[in-house]
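hiii, so i know i said id send this last week but things got crazy w the move. better late than never?? heres the sequnce for the chain we talked about at the cafe, plus the structure i predicted for it. fair warning i was half asleep when i ran it
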Amino acid sequence: MIRVGVIGLGNMGRHHARIYSQMEGADLEAVADLREEAEEVAVRYGARFYRDHREMLRKERPDAVSVAVPTALHRDVGVDCLKAGVATLMEKPLASSVEEAEELAELAEVRGVPLMVGHIERFNPAVRALKGLIDRGDLGDLTSLTARRVGVFPPQVKDADVVLDLAVHDIDICSFLLGRLPERVYARAGKALNSRKWDFAGIFLDYGEASALIQVNWITPVKIRELTVTGTGGYAELNYITQRLRVYESEYRRTFDSFGDFVVKFGSPRVREVPVEGAEPLFLELSHFLSCVAEGRTPEVSGREGLSAVAVAEDALRSSEEGKVVFCRS
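okay and structure toks below
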């Protein structure tokens, strides 16, 4: 039985506590939050409640913790957990800056403590199915990805902009699907409804032979979470929310026209719905985390991968501020 704690009981932290309390092989021993009203979460799931996460770490000595505090606190809380030798799942983004993210990744490596970053879409069953298609070559050579992640402003977000909080999902997914990091980025971001932080952005990622276009905002009145992938062998449409995956297999032949010029003639594509076994991505993410803790394996989304996503997000913001293409540090 793995003894688990949760630090931060806001929108995501409450779900971490819920799932741990239901998961076989996990014992949710304690939760921590600065707010007294968060104690009701502890009562609901039979865990001990602490106002100070350091006291919780010292007294409970958990095997693993989920950290779901505001982004600005990720570095400080993460350092406390890693120095205590506790396997840590840090909600995305890993930290609010590259410097802080690198500090956490390095500390985990030096201390030999597992550090996983909660890029939840990695565990979306539709994404896993799409990754399988791509790796088998069903879509041919990939040429472009387009992601749309838009909706209304989330009131729980107090300290992050739309790029670091929202686009970081798709930055990670595009690199995951392509199997490499982008070389260059060009972005435009702005403040449409919120004068204090970026609330919309368009990001172009150059991966060499492939590219990705990411649209994110907190101003669209309807929630949309979609991804499309184009390759030489077909086209795929993915809906993150419904976990639906549809593939259009290309039908074409190369030939020459009457003038001797090379042409490609397309026929009607074969359309198929890819079977996807629906599941809650967070449950799959936490299950993976605990199995890594139990078996001593490196988590799939490591601290280094979380660092890379933060670095590209920062590069995108720098591109927008400077109005030019930026070479990625990742």
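btw The chain has nine helices and 17 strands. thought thatd interest u
miss u guys!!
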